[in-house]
Amino acid sequence: MLIDEKYLVLYNAIADSEGCGQPIEVSLDQLADIWFCTQRNVKLIVHKLQEEGFIVWMAGRGRGNRSRMTFLIPKEKKLLELAQLYASKGEYKQAFEAIDQYGEGTSVRHQFVEWMNSHFGCRTELIDDAEADILRLPVYRPILTLDPKHIYYAFSAHMVKQLFDCLVKYDKDAGKVVPSLSHAWEHDSTGTEWTFHLRKGVLFHHGRELVAEDVVFSFKRLHDSASSWFVRSFAEVKAMGPRSVLIKLAAPNWLLPRYLCSPGMSIVPHDLVQQDDQFWTHPVGTGPFRYVEWRNDRFVMAANAHYFQGRAHLDGVVIVSMPEDTIIYAKSWEQLIVDHDLRELQLEQGWQKIEFICNGCSLLTWNLGKTGPQNSPAFRKAIDLLIDRRRMIGDLGEDRIHPASGFYPSEESYRSGERTDVEQAMALLQESGYRGETIRLSTYGIHVQDAWWLQKQLGHYGIQLEVQVETWLSIREKGVIQAADGLIYCVVFAEDEVCMIELFEQTGNFLREHMAPELLKWVESKIDDALALKDPAARWLEWMAIERKLRDETHVIFLLHKKLNTFYNPHIKGVGVNSLGWIDFKDIWLERAVN
């Protein structure tokens, strides 16, 4: 424990009521109890506190004469200094823990967050006598995994893309799949045999060259995982020499190149993954950044100087995990903020904003594997008709901008999403036999507000909702998913068709876990039919048929389409938002001020 913390522990114990500048009678026994140490150590600590100028100490003379201690530094000042000290060393978790432990009844948390504004952002720093451009970015959600086969949330997928690469990637602007680790590929006329040819000279971060065996291993390890759906139709994967890989499929899949763009199919080094049980705590890939450090409160990356698609302009990135109740907004020119969870942000003068509609929607899925009113189609339809989405947008505002009647944002989705019919809904509610049973809705994070709104609005019609608030971690627990009558969350489609398939194929996905077996079987057959179609327009009709069935039978209640914002200072260049809704770190660069 730092001497600063010793001071704060003592201050909380004996000086909170007296404050600074007033002599307080104490005994060595009393101090030993407070610090949980011997009297000998008490004397050492007191001497250190005197030496640092924290206290004035007047030792008691003679039997029965108590010593006197005067505190010289206000608790708020010392606590803020301690939190800043921890933060300057990158120990953000300890900074907030100290504030929580010693700062009750003070404004230190607010002061510290204000100070942190100047700590985050993109700036040039001196590291080992050399200038380095470092981006420090606050986030309000944890990195749950960096193993491609365990990806579920968009943020984890985004971080995987910083460390690893796929055989190919999707160019959103060009609307086509382009080379990445693979420089060329071909397929047979049936769409069941595909051969991919690897670039020469691509290096993993530990220095070994990428070979075909890495690709074969990366795909085979997906079996028996939540991401096994990627390779469900793989009959055989084998190396055809050191730089070519053959994939044989049991059935046609004309979307295979798009599958291979997904972060879940990133290529990992076979030797390290097989040899090191702790590999995923210090992962090694081929990506534009390499792992440096991973703790509960931060993840640190450095630029991969040998990246095959060109070195990143930044020298390093520090992702700082902030407590959810802290609101950070940049006030200095170096900063850059992604608005996924923040509210009521005021744009600084001269700053730029990228605003776009999220490719997905918020929704409510019903658990059809649990007994309850939600198993009645009439009950589900009644709920759908009672939700006034326009009013929901007006009441909650912020990033909620359009009613939804489907997964994808479109004028048709906005228009159809405005449907409400209270009279029909009440008739359906009576038909369903609903008698006021409590419906448990589980949710997490930014979706809690939506759940509370539904609880209040549906309560006007006699529908009893219980909102169960979970965390990013607990919401994924099988027991939580099974216990809920419904889940409220958001889906984001980074890759349109592939992400649609993922909703129904990925083990543990909320929608899949709540679907009735017969419906899931029907959906999987429609997916197989779609994958056999080479024409994208024909495939799209299949996806829309799935969406239409989910909507018409109210297995899913589509709620709202949302927008995302990125705020950045014009001195930061190369800012772009990728398909996952996050900033592409590789292309960011800092414009130097000209004197």
Tell me about this structure.
With 595 residues, the protein is an alpha+beta fold. The chain has 20 helices and 25 strands. The chain has a 5-stranded mixed beta sheet, with no helix packed on it. Strands 20-19-21-17-22 form a 5-stranded mixed beta sheet. A 4-stranded antiparallel beta sheet has the order 8-9-11-10, with helices on one face. Strand 12 and strand 13 form a beta hairpin. The two termini are 45 Å apart. The relative contact order is 0.11.
Q: Which labels suit this protein?
A:
595 residues; alpha+beta; 5-stranded mixed sheet; 33% helix; 23% strand; globular
Overall geometry comes to globular
Number of helices: 20
Spatial arrangement of strands, main beta sheet:
4-5-14-13-12
How many DSSP E strands? 25
User: Taking Cα atoms only, what radius of gyration do you get, to the nearest Å?
Assistant: 29 Å
